[in-house]
Structure formats: C-alpha cells, structure tokens
Input
Amino acid sequence: MIETRSLVAAFRGGTPIVFPDVAVPQGGTLLLRGPSGSGKSTWLAVVAGLLAPVSGQVVVAGTPLLERGARLDAWRARHVGFLPQKLHLSPALTVAQNLALVYWASGLRPDPLRMQATLDALGVSGLADRLPQALSGGQAQRVALARAVLLSPSVLLADEPTASLDDESAQAALALLQQTATTVGATLVLATHDARAVHAVHAACSVAQSAGGSAQDVIEMTLQRMN
Output
C-alpha cells in the first residue's frame, strides 16, 4: 500500500512540487500520469525512499518514511522493487551477480536457487552467467524486473516502462509487469505518459473483473508540467 498526504518534494534543487494526496491499497494499481517534466520521477523517488520530501507524510507498505541511512536502504531492498527507465544493470557483473546485489543491500545472504527460479519465471533462465552487454533490450528489461521482484516486494514501481518500445513489445512488457505484481501480491505503480500503457492497464483490469477475478479498480493520479 501507498499513502501520501500534503506531499511536497523537489529533485536536485529544482522547484518544489506539491503532489495530490493518494491512497493505493495493497495489491492495487496506480497509474501515475503526466508529461515529461511533471514530477513523476520525483514522486517515485520519494515513495522508493530515495529522496526525502520537503514536507508531508509518506507511508509505504505500512512504514512511514521518516529516517535515512542504512536502515532505510535495507527496508527498501526488502519491500520496494524499482524498475527504472534506465535499467542500471552493472556492466561489470553477470546477471546473477546483479541479482545478488539485492541480497547484499538488504543484509541477506544471496540465494542462488531463488535467483534462478525468478529468472525462470520471467523467461530468461539461461542468462545467469551473461554480462548485461550480451543481452537484448527485452532480455535486459526482464533481468531488471527479476531484480525488482526477487524478494517479493510489497510495492513495485515502474518508471516509463514502455517509453522506447514498439507496440508489441510495450504490450508484452505491461502484461509481464501486471502478471508479476499479481504473483507476488505487490502494489503496482506505473509512471507513464504513454496512452498505450493507460489503455492496456484499464483493459486488463476490466477483463479480470469480467472473468470474476478479484482485480481492484485502477487509481489514476495525473500531474501537470511545471512552468
């Protein structure tokens, strides 16, 4: 779950942004909409515990984000999965070593069996020993998603996951994100200005509800470009 109230934040010395209040239940989906420069990445950074707000309240997975330092880093590694627009896979490390970083950040011993099972579930089972430069764009995105969901996070954040994808690849990426969030029971946030993503998320929710599933309504929060 994610709740923010009276949230004001600024990124890299920029103009403070006043964000709308929002409450997303556990297992729900938030579409964070708005053009480039509207503050989507700033909001994601605050919710991920990467950026301290100027003021306001932020509660993620039942935890108020009040402190900074090693304890918050370990909490983030265990409870928040982040799929950034730039995937940030370490080029000097193999896929398996990139996944192991999640365990080190959270203070846990790496679990090779779980890492392999996560790669298997995302259809990239044979890539554990490859370096990132040997991956296709789609493979790299799946590896980054495996890293994000490795510890079954409470919250999964995706920043413009379809920005550089064609229609077919975008649809596949969105379906994978939604399926993975459902599997681990995570609250899913999709930050996007892509109309394809908005349509696909609402369509998937409608299909699930029509089939008698337990899909929750999609919540939308739209931000405006700062002048």
The longest helix spans residues 167-184. The CA atoms of residues 23 and 140 lie 32 Å apart. The longest strand covers residues 2-9. The two ends are 31 Å apart (CA to CA).
